[in-house]
Amino acid sequence: MQKNLVIVESPAKAKTIEKFLGKDFKVMSSYGHIRDLKTKDFSIDIENNYTPEYVVPADKKKLVSELKSEAKKADMVWLASDEDREGEAISWHLAEVLGLDAKKTKRIVFHEITKNAILHAIETPREVNIDLVNAQQARRVLDRIVGFELSPVLWRKIKPALSAGRVQSVAVRLIVEREREINDFVSEASFRVIATFILPDGTTLLKAELNKRLKDKQDAYKFLEDCQKASFVIEDITKKPVKKSPAAPFTTSTLQQEAARKLGFSVSQTMMIAQRLYESGFITYMRTDSVHLSDLALGTAKEAIIDIYGEKYYKFRQYHTKSKGAQEAHEAIRPTYIANTDIEGSAQEKKLYELIRKRTIASQMADAELERTTISVSISDKKEKFVAVGEVISFDGFLQVYREDTDDEHEKEENGILPPVKLNEVLTRKDIIATERFTQRPPRYTEASLVRSLEELGIGRPSTYAPTIQTIQNREYVLKGDKDGVERKYHVLTLSKTGIKDVEKKEIAGADRNKLIPTDIGIVVNDFLMEYFPDVLDYNFTASVEKEFDSVAEGEMEWTNLIDKFYKVFHPIVEKTVAIKTEHKVGERELGIDPKSGKPVFVKIGRYGPIAQIGQANPDDKNAPKPQFASLMKDQSIETITLEEALKLFDLPRVIGDFEGEEMVAAVGRFGPFIRHAGKFVSIPKTLDPLSITSEEAIELIKEKREKEEKRNIKKFDEDPAMEILNGRYGPYIAYNGKNYRIPKSVAKPEDLTLEECKKIVESAADKPATKKRAAKKK
DNA sequence: CAGTGAGCGAGCTTCCGCTTGACTT
After folding, report:
1. Between residues A351 and A682, which one has the greater pLDDT?
2. Catalytic residue among A50, A221, A278, A285
3. Catalytic residue flag (residue A532)
4. The pairing of beta strand A486-496 with beta strand A499-509
5. Nucleotides of B under 7 A from a protein CB
6. Is-above-0.85 flag for pTM?
């Protein structure tokens, strides 16, 4: 029987700590929160001073009873959840739910998982800080009120099953507003002039750029003309030392950004891989907002750097977090053992580990020293100059290990090494090229750049960045997708020995891949919320309520007063908004009149997404003709669709022809365009259009689909038609009476399985606990 | 996976933050 029970949040942490504490201590994990508001219920008693109704969720019941029985056995229970608002609340819920005796309960905290830190924590226990707990309750209750009052407004006004919240709605706002900036952006052209000179030695070349851009083609032409007779002289050479410092070690947000840039990982991918590294003991905790490194880490980093690179490359640095609302319950993300260069694991795990390790080491290394040389070339009779900038690394410092990437794809130009030149040297002009360039529109968000913006605004926490991105995509507010660029022409004027040449070239501009793009639903929901709930959507809303949570945590304010103040303003607006009766649906747009029927044509958000509609329903007249509906195509938007495009949609469903004596019909459904033929459905790929698809193309698609289905069937049994061996997404499997069974790895050739063997597999699977039916198939 | 959708009335959807499992279409 153990004397002491320690409860932490994470099981991996529990395992590590148990090793430090010896046999008198049993360490268990709460697996995060053990109690919360009900999921299906408002669970806040507004009338009764906002009393929250907490429950232990079903999947935590078993854990809680285990914790309870262990706590009963122990002489002392140490609540060791994280030292932040949520962690304090976890300890409080534990104390309440487990019915802990105050005399036999202590609250301890540590920021790093080292033996010393933990032993120190045990020596300096405290009590649960109820003010901090109350700040958490305020946070929880406020989020529930916002989410559970706002979402139903959207169900009524826009579409069922939508959602709104303090974090997700601002994330959508950022993306919608960026898209509007992009739409409103007018790019401006100017001419960038680059000269190539020949040095007096007759062979060495020097490239230099004009220190200003020229306004238009006339200007550029005139300038080149002037240059034809001009002479060029080295007017100035300046050398300046420049220092570069390493970036701070990783937090969750910076790890997500760098893993996206350098390794191409999605935000959730990064978190899954980091979780595995953490559970294997290779890295510290991966959900953190702190850039702090423990003394142990600082010490071992120093050792490693001096050992590998030498004393000159080491520099002590302690970083301090700048991000809003950081709670710093953990260390920065770093390797547990810096000396550990190679780890066991998948290729992805190795890559991410190496990134973390390099970043950590670089953060303790010396500045890089560069020498920047600027050469100015004067142009006779002109004020303008050509300027060449070169950089030479005189001491690489941290750059030897790690270089942070930038999001800006256009600023990646490297300044190279310049040839040696002397002051007043006269240069020969080889050629001068004036190229038309355009100002860049603002970039669309990537998952990672969205996380950065949210963090800068202090919105969301390390544990929620990835899920939030998932949520706004699940609600179809935002899609991760591609945008085709547009072709644009530009002029290149070249001055060479033979004179000035003008060439028109073409390029594709503004193409995007894997970026966050708002949908019609996202835009309509955002505009609606911005109109009626601007306070909640305000970029500073979270920051300002965080201040109030802080004063609750300091014991300066009752948490229920905070909530009351908010609710008294917020709730009446909800009521008022629901009561507003409008003639038109939110986001509805009238495109014009249908020339055939003379009825108005609308686009709006329907129950299943954006639709076009001809005519209005008449509630007073039951016999009046019903309006006609048609879904918009995936690449169409209710903001930009024209009357002509909308009317075309009503050509669907469309009979394309006959095949094998049955009609083929093209239409658009929930999952996009399709062909219906003989009771079967075939999707129409993006390359084809249901409005223009020919019967030949359709027949081709039907045949392709049949072929695929053919391959799906590996084997059938005449004796028992219910038993089938099929080819699925995860390889071959057995289907029997509507259920699927995996084929054991020991079977090399599934097609050789006999009926008896198949039955055996089915039976042995039946012994195992029944696989749960996948919950909630709707996203 | 399923290919719809103007209302006589069922019942459902939803938040943010802590944490890991279960397990295959």
Report:
1. A351
2. A285
3. no
4. antiparallel
5. 1-7, 12-25
6. yes
